[in-house]
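Hi Y.,

Following your request, here is the sequence exactly as I used it, all 359 residues.
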Amino acid sequence: MTLSWKHPSGLVGLSFVNLGLMIVTLGIYGFWAKTEVRKRIWSAVRIEGEPLHYTGTGKELFVGFLVAFFMVLVPLMLSVTIVSLVFGPQSIIRKLYTLMLYAGIFLLIGYATYRAQRYRLSRTHWRGIRGALIGSAGDYAWTYLGTGLLVILSLGWALPWRSTKLQGIMTRDMYFGTQAFRFDAKSGPLYARFAVLWVAAVIIFSCISAGAAAVSYYDIYGGGAPLKLGPDGRPLPQLSTLLKIYGIILVGMLALAVFRAWYRASQLRHFFEHTHFDGATLKSTLSTRGLIWVAVTNVLILVATLGILSPVTQARMARYIVENLQIDGTVRLAVITQGADQHIHRGEGLAQAFDLDGF
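Below is the corresponding structure, written out as tokens. Let me know if you'd prefer a different format.
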């Protein structure tokens, strides 16, 4: 099967139209703006020369957000206020409740991630047949929480295993019509590159800390400039000192971003190449250089346009992924029929409430 990209036209104009309508409606039009962008990006993806179709609506996204906001976020905020008023902001009960609340929010993030993917797949059609995510959002959420705790306890070393496990759950629950996807990736092949990333992160953060401490000490005690003292009698950092420290942090983060892109490209290729559908397997040629180029230029576009051209940057990233993806093998399209309707009537409101929805 062939996979191709036909770049959608009018994204720049659409970006400014969306901005104007969002200003007039105080941001409410954003749900309809997101829907229109999705429709254009989905239609740019061609399988066997035929486009994907996105059938979601702005109303579904808006209603989903309202339900999540008033049924989940508002009660959570009120509960924190009530506990603080009843037991006091410094009480042990207040602190224990806050800890439980963080765990609950982490659980909700996993739940929201799964539900958002289920909604998008249910609104994705090709040749009249829709996608689906048939599984339990609750099971995924508990796995998301449990594996997240293991990442913390392992100082990050569980990350490749966690990402593979979560990707496996999501992919195996995916359907196109009546045909399920398969995923057989193991986390072992990811660990060599992850070890390099982990060591690089430790070295980079150590260098940032040491560099910031050295600059602060020299500028305050060895620079010769008169010291300005704070109310407590301690020297105050100078503007030049802060700029140097910010520069060190920026250089360190850029270096870390390169290592992360190097690992991320390998991870994506690994996941794609172990994703199967009927008799076909995905093959990816994503590269570190390509990911960095698209990511950096997208950031520059967003900064230069104050975020207005966000639809353009989304399309550029989607284009890079699609143009570096191949479908090897054959799919028996004749045996695939329409799957059962999941009766999903609202958009991914919880994901939007937590600002998780990148598309």
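Residues 186-272 form one domain.

Thanks again,
Q.
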